[in-house]
């Protein structure tokens, strides 16, 4: 999987490469600037020939230094370029200063003002935002805020192409939060690896597209170098999902999904269908007696057993072939439901807790954390997360005043440590973390945006897909990573007008496309 870096991690990689003597900071800046120009021409081939005009907005740090390299390279291609500097040339860091000086020997550099992106009568073909990158430490103000806030108008009303260097300026590279302004550009060109900001929060509303360019820095190979990294969920390998040719149904596990009472069984049935479609050998619904007729009229391959109360559940789980559990969808939040959760967790099965099984602990989340273990997965959406971890949710919702700002990754990692289990925090960017610090992000953004997944029952299916993969003996993090990818992929494969029932039914096509 590819890593998603923080600004500090990126700086550490850069420092290590420079210290090794293999490259200088100036080399890296030259490569970065050249890479942005290359990406611009790849994105808009019509700009690759002919003479065009560009405004390059350069900030007070090395992001601005990249901007001066870009100015020089475009000028060398015959463009008419103006650099606009936010800050004082004397205060630029050494490499940025060198590139500033190279540029002013070739073309104009004027102070950045509110008109820097262009005047109504004099719009350039291209605006490059190189004001702030990974070094943004506080909210953007003044002329920089004004210009950046106006980029959307410059794009949409005047058709000017807008490109950000590394991250759209004003976006905190570690959290994706905006600090003082909310730029919108066509393209962001980043270096070496994506930064967390390219995936967290509403990343795809700030930039329509992100391109990562290699600048010759080494990627971490040793596991100790990779510790602390956040990983981006990628398509699963077919072999992870294939069933052994000699296997029988019991070799693929037996998932038990607990259902709510009459009139509330739909959620658990969706969960069960998700578990079955993803390949659990057997799936059984545990159903209160009064709801059995209702459930029986809806199921075929899925089985059901009566579960009247916690004692009945404990007794049933003497059968150790029932190796993965899911509690929560439609379960209710009363004492009876809570008794089931309290009975299930000490039996140390792989257990997904979703929906009601999370909300029922809102008054005393610590009671839940006491019971959780390393085979437990909590799958909160934003509201459920706030019920279980109100302090973390408040910190996450607070408007940031400095960078790096508190991120969804920070919140999920702390939540996983506190609960002592895997936490999957849902959203367009779903963040999952285990108590030992492993963390990954699944991004349903940009070309994988799946707005139709915001539909009743969609989360129930996701819980079922995770449970099915746990039944198939995957560890909690792998099950979460693969399930989130499959869930989104099913929605994309189905397309518009998706309802929750469609998600599991799309699984065969998605498996086939993966080569399973
Ligand atoms: N790492 C790598 O491998 C490579 C990095 N490269 C490039 O370097 C970029 C990172 O450079 P960087 O560290 O100099 O940070 P950057 O964002 O340019 O600005 C920092 C300056 O802004 C200032 N400042 C901050 N907030 C402010 C505010 N609100 N309003 C006003 N000022 C504010 C801040 O001031 P300070 O906080 O120190 O007071 C400081 O002076 C990276 O994104 C990439 O483009 C490439 O060249 C290739 C290899
Ligand atoms: K930028």
UniProtKB/TrEMBL annotation:
Metal-binding found in the keyword field: yes
Keyword Nuclease appears in the UniProt entry: no
Any Pfam family matching the protein: Carb_kinase
EC number: 4.2.1.136, 5.1.99.6
Binding site for AMP: 426-430, 459
Subunit structure of this chain's protein: Homotetramer.
Keyword set, alphabetical order: ATP-binding, Isomerase, Lyase, Metal-binding, Multifunctional enzyme, NAD, NADP, Nucleotide-binding, Potassium
Location of the YjeF N-terminal domain: 10-223
Domain of life: Bacteria
Record: residues binding K(+): 63, 129, 169
Domain called YjeF C-terminal: residue spans: 232-514
Reaction catalysis annotation: (6R)-NADPHX = (6S)-NADPHX; (6S)-NADHX + ADP = AMP + phosphate + NADH + H(+); (6R)-NADHX = (6S)-NADHX; (6S)-NADPHX + ADP = AMP + phosphate + NADPH + H(+)
Family of the protein in this entry: Belongs to the NnrE/AIBP family. In the C-terminal section; belongs to the NnrD/CARKD family.
SUPFAM superfamilies per record: Ribokinase-like (SSF53613), YjeF N-terminal domain-like (SSF64153)
Name of this protein: Bifunctional NAD(P)H-hydrate repair enzyme
Entry function: Catalyzes the dehydration of the S-form of NAD(P)HX at the expense of ADP, which is converted to AMP. Together with NAD(P)HX epimerase, which catalyzes the epimerization of the S- and R-forms, the enzyme allows the repair of both epimers of NAD(P)HX, a damaged form of NAD(P)H that is a result of enzymatic or heat-dependent hydration. Catalyzes the epimerization of the S- and R-forms of NAD(P)HX, a damaged form of NAD(P)H that is a result of enzymatic or heat-dependent hydration. This is a prerequisite for the S-specific NAD(P)H-hydrate dehydratase to allow the repair of both epimers of NAD(P)HX.
Species per Swiss-Prot/TrEMBL record: Sedimentitalea todarodis
Cofactor: record remark: Binds 1 potassium ion per subunit.
Residue sites binding (6S)-NADPHX per the record: 62-66, 133-139, 166, 267, 330, 381, 460
Cofactors required: K(+); Mg(2+)
Database matches in PANTHER family: ATP-DEPENDENT (S)-NAD(P)H-HYDRATE DEHYDRATASE (PTHR12592:SF0), ATP-DEPENDENT (S)-NAD(P)H-HYDRATE DEHYDRATASE FAMILY MEMBER (PTHR12592)
């Amino acid at each position: 999987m590819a890593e998603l870096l923080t600004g500090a991690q990126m700086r550490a990689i850069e420092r290590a490469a420079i210290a090794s003597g293999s490259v200088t900071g100036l080399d890296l800046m030259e490569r970065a600037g050249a890479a942005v120009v290359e990406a611009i021409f790849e994105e808009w081939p019509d700009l690759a020939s002919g003479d065009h005009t560009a405004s390059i907005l350069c900030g007070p740090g090395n992001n601005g230094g990249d901007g001066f390299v870009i100015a020089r390279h475009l000028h060398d291609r015959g463009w008419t370029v103006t650099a606009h500097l936010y800050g004082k040339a004397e205060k630029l860091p050494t490499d940025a200063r060198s590139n500033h000086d190279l540029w002013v020997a070739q073309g104009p550099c004027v102070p950045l003002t509110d008109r820097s992106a262009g005047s109504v009568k004099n719009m350039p073909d291209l605006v490059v935002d190189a004001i702030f990158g990974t070094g943004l430490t506080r909210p953007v103000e003044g002329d920089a805020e004004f210009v950046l806030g106006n980029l959307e108008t410059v794009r949409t009303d005047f058709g000017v192409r807008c490109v950000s260097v590394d991250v759209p300026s004003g976006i905190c590279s570690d959290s994706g939060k905006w600090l003082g302004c909310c730029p919108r550009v066509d393209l962001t060109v980043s270096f070496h690896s994506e930064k967390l900001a390219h995936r967290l929060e509403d990343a795809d509303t700030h930039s329509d597209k992100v391109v990562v360019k290699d600048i010759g820095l080494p990627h971490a190979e040793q596991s100790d170098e990779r510790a602390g990294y956040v990983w981006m969920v990628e398509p699963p390998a077919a072999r992870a999902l294939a069933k052994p040719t000699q296997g029988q149904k019991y070799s693929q596990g037996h998932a038990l999904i607990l259902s709510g009472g009459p009139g509330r069984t739909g959620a658990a049935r969706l969960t069960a269908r998700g578990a079955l479609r993803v390949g659990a050998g057997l799936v059984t619904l545990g159903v209160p007696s009064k709801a059995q007729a209702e459930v029986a009229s809806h199921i075929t391959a899925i089985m059901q057993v009566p579960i009247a109360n916690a004692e009945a559940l404990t007794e049933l789980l003497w059968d150790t072939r029932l190796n993965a559990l899911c509690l929560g969808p439609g379960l209710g939040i009363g004492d009876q439901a809570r008794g089931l959760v309290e009975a299930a967790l000490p039996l140390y099965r792989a257990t997904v807790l979703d929906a009601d099984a999370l909300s029922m602990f809102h008054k005393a989340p610590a009671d839940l954390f006491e019971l959780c273990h390393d085979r437990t997965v909590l799958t909160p959406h934003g509201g459920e997360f706030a019920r279980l971890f109100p302090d973390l949710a408040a910190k996450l919702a607070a408007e940031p005043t400095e960078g790096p700002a508190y991120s969804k990754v920070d919140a999920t990692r702390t939540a996983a440590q506190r609960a002592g289990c895997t936490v999957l925090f849902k959203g367009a960017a779903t963040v999952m973390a285990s108590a030992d610090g492993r963390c990954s992000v699944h991004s349903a953004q940009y070309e994988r945006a799946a707005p139709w997944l915001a539909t009743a029952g969609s989360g129930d299916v996701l819980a079922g897909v995770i449970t099915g993969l746990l039944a198939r003996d995957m560890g909690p993090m792998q099950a979460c990573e693969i399930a989130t990818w499959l869930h989104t992929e099913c929605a994309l494969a189905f397309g518009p007008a998706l309802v929750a029932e469609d998600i599991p039914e799309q699984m065969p096509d998605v498996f086939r496309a993966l080569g399973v």
